[in-house]
Amino acid sequence: MDSSTLDEYLGTVPGSVSDLELLLWVLVCWALVLDIVLTAYGLSIGLVERNPLMRQALDTFGLAALGLAKAGAVAVALVFRFLWPEYAIVAPLGLAVPWILAVLINATLLASL
């Protein structure tokens, strides 16, 4: 496989997005929404946010803090993606993996109640 074929597959051709990268961004969006929904539900039934920084932000600003934190992370990932297009899949992968794990953990916790 030559370099140009790999670049095209990974979406590193300037101005392009590979199918893999697009799938990862879709997963990021779903994980973002599900994490906010599951966190909101958990808080509404009396569970407590375990991240002390986010707990303080939620106490101060409500669920808007969670939305702003997620939006900030997506913004940083998008800047990274546009500054270094040769690493296009790293940005959504770096958000999708931990957020999907958080969703799975939250869903498992809520299902066990």
UniProtKB/TrEMBL annotation:
The chain crosses the membrane at residues 22-48, 60-83, 89-111. The keyword GTP-binding does not apply. The keyword rRNA-binding does not apply. Residues 28-110 form the DUF5658 domain. InterPro entries: DUF5658. Keywords: Membrane, Transmembrane, Transmembrane helix. It holds the Pfam family DUF5658. This is DUF5658 domain-containing protein. It comes from Halosimplex litoreum.
